[in-house]
Amino acid sequence: MATMLVQPPFPASHVIPLRTSRLVPPKHSRTKTTRFGDSPSGSTSIYTIRVAEQSSGLVGNDTLVYTKAELYQTLEGINRGIFGAPSAKKSEIEDLVKLLESQNPTPDPTLNLEKLAGCWKLVYSTITILGSKRTKLGLRDFISLGDFFQTIDIPKSKAVNIIKFNVRGFKLLNGQLTIEASFKIASESRVDISYDNSTITPDQLMNVFRTNYDLLLSIFNPEGWLEITYVDDTMRIGRDDKGNIFILERSEKNSISP
Predict the structure, then answer these.
(1) How many beta carbons lie within 10 A of that of residue 171, not counting itself?
(2) What is the residue range of 133's domain?
(3) Confidence class of residue 44 from pLDDT cuts 50, 70 and 90?
(4) Phi, psi at residue 3, to the nearest 5°?
(5) How far is CA 185 from CA 26, 223, 224, in A?
(6) Which one of 41, 212, 216, 257 is most buried, by most CB atoms within 10 A?
C-alpha cells in the first residue's frame, strides 16, 4: 500500500455532475447522501454529495471537477475494491483515472513535496484479497476491514500505513496493522519505497493473524516504487511497480493510534 504510499474543500462536499453529461455544468442544486466503505466501529463513512450550480467560486477547471466527481460516484458501493469489482466497473474507474492523470495539475510531485505531506485515506485500490487468501485471513465473517490511512512525513522521508481491523468474535475488538516504510526520490514523479517494520496491535489481534502474518504482509507490503500520477489539494493517485492503482483523498485524521 505504499503503494498507498488543512482541511480541503473536497471531499466533504464533492461536486457531482449529472450522469447524462460529464462536462456540462448542472443547472439545479440538490443534496444526496451516500454510503462508502465500512468502519471498524460499525459506523459508515458518509459522503455528502452535492449537485450544485457552477459558480466563479469553484475550481476553474470544470472538466477536472466533474471528472473527480464522477469518479467518486463510480467508487460507491465497492468497498475500495479490496474484495474485487466487476470488470466493467474497473474499466470505468481506469478510464476516469487516466482522464484525471492527463490533467494532472502537479506534473512534478516530488518537486512539490508539500502536496504529498500529511494524512491520506484510501478510497480505491486494485490490490484485492480474494478466494483462499480472504478465507485464511478470516475476512469473510470473522474479521472485517476498516479504514486505510497513510501518513507522509516529508522531513523524515517516512510513510506510515495503517490498516484498521475489527474482530467480531472478541467483543468487537478493534485493532490495526501498522507498516512503516522509507522513501527516496527516484524522479520528478517517482519514489522508491523500502519496508522498515510492521506491528499489529493489540496483542489479541496479533494472535488472530499470527499464523497468516506473512500472507498479510505480502498483500500490504509497500516495498517497490510508486509513480505519483496525479495530486492536487484533495486527491492523490499512484501506480506501483506491480501494476496496481491507488486513489487516496485528504483526511482530517491526524492521529495514527488505534
Answers:
(1) 7
(2) 14-250
(3) very low
(4) -75, -30
(5) 41, 14, 12
(6) 216
Start-to-end CA distance of the chain, whole Å, equals 18
Tell me the whole-structure pTM to 2 decimals: 0.76
DSSP SS3 for 251: coil
Do residues 174 and 166 touch, judged by C-beta distance below 8 A? yes
**Domain of residue 26, CATH code:** 2.40.128.280
Residue 226 lies in a domain: yes
The verdict on residue 79 lying in a domain is yes
Q: Is position 3 within any domain?
A: no
What's the pLDDT at 4?
A: 42
Domains held by the chain: number? 1
Pick from 24, 18, 68, 19: which is nearest to 47 by CA?
Answer: 68
Query: How far apart (Å, rounded) are the C-alpha atoms in residues 119 and 30?
Result: 30
pLDDT digits (tens, 9 = 90+) for 234-244: 999 999 999 99
